[in-house]
């Protein structure tokens, strides 16, 4: 299976050489031996390309990217904004006014339609740019060997000739001829439609073999479901199989979500309602008052215009998209807009431990070998420190210690790197980094041994093994992994004298329990002499159960302090936090206790989970907060069990096998740093920093965005409600219309384009994380909000009608009274805005009034517009308005204050029970 790579030529690779090597030369790389492919591409697999060669190749072949998917022409996208029932009604109204030859009305209504489309188009562009930016944050990377060392580069910079390293869960960055594989299987459904992963080796296939049979190739865009590999890139960008069939791999995010669909449905129903009411209105006016039909039709047009919230769709989209952008700034990258809605209703967060709740900065602290306990000094990955036994420094002269370090350092894919600033980091996995650092402290020389075959680590096996040719001339199978797994496969143990003796599993278990009770992560080492077939390949089945157990190491991985705080916030917000880890039960419980997760019920192990049926599991899943030694399949069962108990579950994951659980969870959360591409693809949210705190922040953001959408609706709908009511009442009672259709449009437009957008930027209310999660089945506006919308509509309508009739009866000109009525409507809206800023609680507090600067900016903009409306002569001509003297301005302000006071009282009546008791007992 494994064929060690050979160096094809020792000739130096230069930029000119690579430029000369053409991708066509390796077009049938699958049919050529990999040595031949390497020769043609003139690259040494141990060195990779030089920087100049890579730059030259990039210049020649272009970036490794597929062309963007075809998008509608901007004009088409603009036109699409007219395709909305609400707009049809408006166009109908314009037609009606044209019939009556009220040209000014027609023009203004049409203008509104166009302005609405322009605003929608611009906002959509902005929303899409926001999402695009977020997508770019998720752009894949690749591990390439350049100038002799491995580096992670943006997948776009991969060029033909690059040596790449692939691991389980990676998305293959380009078309790659494999030169070294271990247990490799790749899912190629994107290309072949075949969802069963195909096994890959380095063997050549026949010239002209179908894609699915080209076993020595890893194709761009396909996924590694198991194993590891290295290979040489033979095609990039459009010059790959996926490029040739020209399919976009990355899912194209649309701006549509269940919420926007819900709103669209609401819009349709509303339009129908408006039509029915318009008919009713016309028949009422005609039947009861004998109002002339021309006047009625004008009123009908005004009514339709008044009742329709034109700005609503754009408002929802932009609020969602901007919210998602804010979330990304807090390191939670939302892959699906709809996740925002679900995040706000999450009731249980199931989190990994390592790296999410803990720092993932591992240091080996204590070793136990055949009853000798060693202490290790030093922190972080710096390979400086001492290993002591009873206070005495020990070296590799100690044969047991030597074998232990040999296993831990050779069964290891991680490298310690000293960066320019002199500090030490790792390329690879923290657990392995800690072991490399331990080896460094003992000045162990890796290069003296050579690795012949590898069984990569997997979360199912919980171990990794290599066959290594050791400097003394022996060949050994070295195994490191979870102590219970290794104990189960061992029959003997290494004594202090370097002999083998019968395995004392009981003593080892005591050591393991003692280490894990201190919250240490425990890893064990075992070995056995290699057999002939182990030199070729290693498989789980061939490991056998005759291993020699060598010892265990305890590694510290301190909890993240900020995660402890975030867990507390979650508990206060009525959200349970559960730890699901592959680690040992003792370690998991110790850490869970430190972090405030364990509720005293202790840990349930993967084995115990397996022994329960689905019914029992539901109880266990609810009762316990710590699940240890779990495999990815257990996550899926746990998600199902919790959902069956009515929980809305957010589940984290990083490995390939976590993908099904993430898909099943209400919110799948993938790790951005540690997670594989497969997992990210299955997730709704990707954490850029792998930190639990970010999940809590995302939930908080989800709640804020949802609140703001609800506020925008509760704010916007009474605007239309009030105007429609004014027109309806006037016609029903045969009064002069307090606002002309044009004036109604004015109010709609100016409030719609200013005030409503203030909510996209509204900060979270105090105590947003001291509320219980939202009921996921409840609509965005619940009954109490509908009551509020209805009452406020009537209230503002009443104030407007009363002021209008009062001034008419006092003998004012119709123009003056109408200008006043229009201004009253606008000002009432402004005051109502401040009431809605805190939807269910008292608003007149500095934290509500002054936190959102944009709201004030919008109010200022609106004031300017309204002043123009009252005082600009040319607007007088269009809108039939007149100048108001200061006394009238006082009337409008008083009306606004009145509306604010009354709506605050209304909130008290509607929400008193909730407002006084937002803090429900935390769930633990
Ligand atoms: P979490 O699921 O919270 O991230 P985890 O990292 O411990 O926890 P896994 O990565 O599945 O979960 O590891 C499970 C166990 O496998 C570990 O407890 C450890 O004993 C062992 N293990 C982890 N990494 C390696 C490795 N690189 N080589 C060998 N064994 C390992």
UniProtKB/TrEMBL annotation:
Q: Where are the transmembrane segments?
A: 82-100, 106-122, 269-288, 300-324, 713-737, 743-764, 785-804, 816-834, 854-875, 887-906
Q: What is its main location?
A: membrane
Q: Provide this UniProt record's keywords sorted from A to Z.
A: ATP-binding, Magnesium, Membrane, Nucleotide-binding, Phosphoprotein, Translocase, Transmembrane, Transmembrane helix
* Occurrences of domain Cation-transporting P-type ATPase N-terminal (ranges): 28-102
PANTHER family attached here? Answer: P-TYPE ATPASE, SODIUM/POTASSIUM-TRANSPORTING ATPASE SUBUNIT ALPHA
Family listed:
Belongs to the cation transport ATPase (P-type) (TC 3.A.3) family. Type IIA subfamily.
**Name by which UniProt lists this protein:** P-type E1-E2 ATPase
**Species whose genome carries this gene:** Nesterenkonia aurantiaca
């Amino acid at each position: 299976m494994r064929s060690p790579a050979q160096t094809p030529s020792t000739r130096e690779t230069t930029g000119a050489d690579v430029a000369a090597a053409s991708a066509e030369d390796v077009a049938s790389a699958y049919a050529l031996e990999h040595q031949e492919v390497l020769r043609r591409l003139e690259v040494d697999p141990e060195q990779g390309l030089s920087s100049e060669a890579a730059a030259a190749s990039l210049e020649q072949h272009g970036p490794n990217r597929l062309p963007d998917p075809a998008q509608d022409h901007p004009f088409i996208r603009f036109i699409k904004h007219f395709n909305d029932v609400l707009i049809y009604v408006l166009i109908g109204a314009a037609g009606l006014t044209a019939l009556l030859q009220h040209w000014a009305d027609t023009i203004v209504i049409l203008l509104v339609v166009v302005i609405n489309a322009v605003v929608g188009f611009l906002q959509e562009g902005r929303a899409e740019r926001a999402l695009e930016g977020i997508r770019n944050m998720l752009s894949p990377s690749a591990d390439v060997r350049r100038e002799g060392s491995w580096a992670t580069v943006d997948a776009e910079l991969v060029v033909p000739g690059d040596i790449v390293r692939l691991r389980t869960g990676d998305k293959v960055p380009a078309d790659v001829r494999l030169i070294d594989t271990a247990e490799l299987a790749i899912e190629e459904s994107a290309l072949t439609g075949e969802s069963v992963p195909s096994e890959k080796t380095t063997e050549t296939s026949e010239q002209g073999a179908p894609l699915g049979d080209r076993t020595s190739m890893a194709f761009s865009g396909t996924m590694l479901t198991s194993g590891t590999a290295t290979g040489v890139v033979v095609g990039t960008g459009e010059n790959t199989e996926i490029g040739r069939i020209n399919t976009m791999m990355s899912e194209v995010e649309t701006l549509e979500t269940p919420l926007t669909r819900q709103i669209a449905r609401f819009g349709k129903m509303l339009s129908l309602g408006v039509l029915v009411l318009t008919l009713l209105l016309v028949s009422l006016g005609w039947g009861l008052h004998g109002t002339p039909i021309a006047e009625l039709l004008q009123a009908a047009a005004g009514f339709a215009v008044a009742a329709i919230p034109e700005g609503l769709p754009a408002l929802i989209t932009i609020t969602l998209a901007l919210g998602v952008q804010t979330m990304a700034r807090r390191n939670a990258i939302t892959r699906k807009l709809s996740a925002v809605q679900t995040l706000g209703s999450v009731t249980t967060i199931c989190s990994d431990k390592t790296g999410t709740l803990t720092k993932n900065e591992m240091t080996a602290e204590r070793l136990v070998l055949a009853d000798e306990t060693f202490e290790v000094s030093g922190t972080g990955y710096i390979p400086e420190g001492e290993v002591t036994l009873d206070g005495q420094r020990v070296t590799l002269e100690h044969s047991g210690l030597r074998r232990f370090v040999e296993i831990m350092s050779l069964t290891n894919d991680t490298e310690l790197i000293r960066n320019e600033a002199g500090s030490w980091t790792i390329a690879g996995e923290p657990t392995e980094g800690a072991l490399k650092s331990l080896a460094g402290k003992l000045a162990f020389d890796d290069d003296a041994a050579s690795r012949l075959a590898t069984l990569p680590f997997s979360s199912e096996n919980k171990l990794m093994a290599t066959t290594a040719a050791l400097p003394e001339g022996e060949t050994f199978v070295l195994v490191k992994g979870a102590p219970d797994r290794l104990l189960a496969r061992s029959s003997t143990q290494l004594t202090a004298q370097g002999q083998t003796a019968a395995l004392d599993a009981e003593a080892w278990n005591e050591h393991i329990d003692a280490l894990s009770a201190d919250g240490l992560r425990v890893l064990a080492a075992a070995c056995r002499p290699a057999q002939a077939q182990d030199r070729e390949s290693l498989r789980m089945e061939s490991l056998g159960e005759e291993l020699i157990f060598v010892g265990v190491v305890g590694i510290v991985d301190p909890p993240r302090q900020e995660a402890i705080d975030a867990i507390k916030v979650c508990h206060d917000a009525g959200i349970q936090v559960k730890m699901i880890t592959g680690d040992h039960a003792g370690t998991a419980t110790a850490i869970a206790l430190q972090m405030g997760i364990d509720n005293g019920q202790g840990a349930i192990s993967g084995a115990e989970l397996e022994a329960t049926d689905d019914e029992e599991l539901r109880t266990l899943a609810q009762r316990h907060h710590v699940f240890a030694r779990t495999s990815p399949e257990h996550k899926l069962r746990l998600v199902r069990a919790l959902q069956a108990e009515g929980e809305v579950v957010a589940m984290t994951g990083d490995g390939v096998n976590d993908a099904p659980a993430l898909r099943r969870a209400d919110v799948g959360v993938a790790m951005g740093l540690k997670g594989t591409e497969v997992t990210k693809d299955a997730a709704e949210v990707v954490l850029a920093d792998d930190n639990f705190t970010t999940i809590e922040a995302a939930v908080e953001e989800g709640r804020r965005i949802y609140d703001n959408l609800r506020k925008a609706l509760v704010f916007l709908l009474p605007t239309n409600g009030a105007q429609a009511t004014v027109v309806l009442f006037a016609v029903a009672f045969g009064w002069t219309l307090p606002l002309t259709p044009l004036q109604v449009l004015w109010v709609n437009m100016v409030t719609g384009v200013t005030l409503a957008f203030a909510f996209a930027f509204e900060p979270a209310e105090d105590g947003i994380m001291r509320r219980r999660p939202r009921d996921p089945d409840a609509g965005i506006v619940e009954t109490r909000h509908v009551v509020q919308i209805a009452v406020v509509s009537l209230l503002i309508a009443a104030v407007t009608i009363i002021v209008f009739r009062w001034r008419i009866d006092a003998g004012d000109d119709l123009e003056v009274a109408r200008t006043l009525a229009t201004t009253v409507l606008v000002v009432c809206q402004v005051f109502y805005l401040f009431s809605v800023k805190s939807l269910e609680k008292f608003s007149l507090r500095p934290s509500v009034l002054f936190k959102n600067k944009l709201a004030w900016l919008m109010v200022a903009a609106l004031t300017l517009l309204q002043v123009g409306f009252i005082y600009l002569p040319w607007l007088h001509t269009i809108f039939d308005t007149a100048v108001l003297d200061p006394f009238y301005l006082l009337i409008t302000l008083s009306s606004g204050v009145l509306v604010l006071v009354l709506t605050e009282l209304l909130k008290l009546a509607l929400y008193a029970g909730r407002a006084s008791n937002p803090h429900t007992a935390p769930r633990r």
